[in-house]
Amino acid sequence: MKHIERPSADDYFMEIASVVAKRSTCLRNKVGALFVKHKRILSTGYNGAPAGLPHCDVLGCAREGMASGTHHELCRAVHAEQNAIIQAALHGISIEGATLYCTHQPCILCAKMMINARIRRVVYRQSYPDGTALEFLEQAGIEVQRMKEKIL
Length: 152
What we know:
Blueprint: H1 9-21, E1 32-37, E2 40-46, H2 56-59, H3 80-90, E3 99-104, H4 108-116, E4 121-126, H5 131-139, E5 143-146
Parallel strand pairs: 3-4, 4-5
Antiparallel strand pairs: 1-2, 1-3
C-alpha cells in the first residue's frame, strides 16, 4: 500500500489562512486569520474596510509612508484577527481555547482581544514590528509559535 503524504495540521490551517488573505482589500499587507478548535475551523477573517464602507483600493491608504506597526488608529481596515473574532461573535461561536492561525503576527490590539477571548495558542508565519504583543501573549500564558516559510 502506498503511503500518502499529508501536511501537518499546522501547515494545513496556515495554508487556509493564506487563502483567506487573498480576500484582503489592504494595499500594504494581505492578512488572513482563522480560529480552530479540535481541528475544526470556527471562523475566518481578513483585513479590510468595515462592511459597506469604501475599500483602500478606492480611497487610498491613510497610512501611506508610515512605518509598519504604527498609527493603527489611522488605518481604515479592521484586522484579520478582529474580523475572525467578530464573525465568531455574530454567529454565537465560542473561540475560548481555540488556536489562531494567522499569516502575520498579531499586533498589540489583537493580542489584547485574544487574551480576553481566552485563546490557547497563536500560530503565525510573518513577523510584525510589535514586540509588546508577543510579551502580552506570553504573560497571559498563550503559546505562540512562528512557522517558517515553506520553500516550494
